[in-house]
Every structure is written in C-alpha cells, then in structure tokens.
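Q&A log
Question type: sequence-to-structure
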Amino acid sequence: MAGFRRAYLRKVWGMTIGEGSRISLKARLDFTNPRGIHIGRETIVTPMAQIFTHDFVKARHVDTHIGSHCFIGAGSIILPGIRIGDHCIVAAGSVVTSDVPDRSLVAGNPARVVKSGIRTGHFGMLVGPSVH
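Response status: OK
Response body:
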C-alpha cells in the first residue's frame, strides 16, 4: 500500500518522494502547490503531520524539503519553504518555523534543536550512540 501511495503522489500530484518513504494516509500534504513537496528516501510522515508549500497571506508558493532517513512526528506542522536536513527527527506536535540542520532532533512550538549529531536509520529510527 505504501508503494501505491508513493507512486500516486508522484505521478498524479508531481511530488518528489524518495524510494522507501512512507506517507500516512492521514498525513496532510499541501495540494495547493503539490510540486513543492520534496521528501527524501526512507523517510516517514506519520498521521496528522501537515506539510505546507504555500503562504496565503504573503501570496507565495515555495518548495518545502524533507531529507532522507527522517521521522516527521504525529501532529507536527512544517511551514512553507522549510528545509529539514537528512537524518532528522521532528517530535510529535512540533511546529517547524525555520530550517533544521542535518542529524538534528527538534521539538516544541516553535521547534528548537534538542539534540544534534544524532544517527538515524530507516524511517528516522535512532541507531547507536548520539552526541549531545
């Protein structure tokens, strides 16, 4: 089913979604500017996460990037134009208002780096020791 959803989002809506990535059926992707969504390989977007690519107030459409091997937690919000690096974790309920560097764990509203230098595997699952 994950492969079918990925193919549908790519072919019908023009999103860039990497191999092995999983997008929950309950995740909310911005279909106002669907070609602006870019998700790397083996990343998971969990239920009720929202990814935006447009800003109605500023009348702009921008690209939003999520790297490879990331975990986007339930109920999190990724604002338009944000770039989340590779091997990142966005904690549940976080509101990401600025770019997230590679190998970071962010949490809160607005999201702040809680831990950096983390190592993740498939779908952003932590592996091995990490640096504080």
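Response note: Helices lie at 2-11.
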